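Explain this fold:

***
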Amino acid sequence: MNSFISEIYKYRFLIHELVIRDIKKKYRRSVLGILWSVLNPLLMMAVTAMVFSTIFRFSIANYPLYLLVGQIMFTFFSESTTFAMTSIIENGSLLKKIYIPKYLFPLSRVISSCVNLLFTLPALIIIILFTGAPLSWGMITFVIPLVLLFFFCLGLGLLLSTMVVYFRDVFHLYGVIISLLSYATPIFYPEQIVPAEYSWLLSYNPLYYYCKAFRISLYSGTLPDLSLLLQCTGFAVAATVAGVWTFKKYENHFILYV
């Protein structure tokens, strides 16, 4: 572990450049540029809130804030894991020319997605002020589930990036899985409406726990309880261990398939 951390420190400037490259690539040829990080979640929240709060009439206090917190969390998960999944393939030509620790590419993608999430915080502040929601120091505790979600996404990203090198179909299959997860996670609906016979969909969905932790911090303004954080930690550790082990086992053969 010490050698792993020291290697990350050694290549910290490269990671920084990779993150900057990913962010610039995302907003290339865009007139508004980074402002889309604020506008996009606001526009998506406005459309979704109008549809679901009017048609389905969910009885959720401050539904726009409830919805936006869930969307920010899920967008980070979806973007980071999808980008990390293709990071090895997209940098295959570079890997064939010089030695670079291969895990730096999925890692940089998850970091850049985390930076994009932080760029969306002004949108969250706008909604809090606009809706008159009370501000509290407890909202800062969202950093704890964010760190746990970061490692969960990193582990899953390492696992997916390994799988897609050998099986390109994983990329298309994962798009379907993301769509399923968006409905299986209470992002735009209250978890209370899920019938008892389908409650297992929430129990076995890691994103449910992360979404709940984010909402307790940012929506309720309090620190998530210890049991919930331990569940999030368990998923983060399991994903990271599985991702690192799988990536390390097969990374020496990547160059033959990229």
Notes: The first helix runs from residue 2 to 10. Residues 33-256 form one domain.
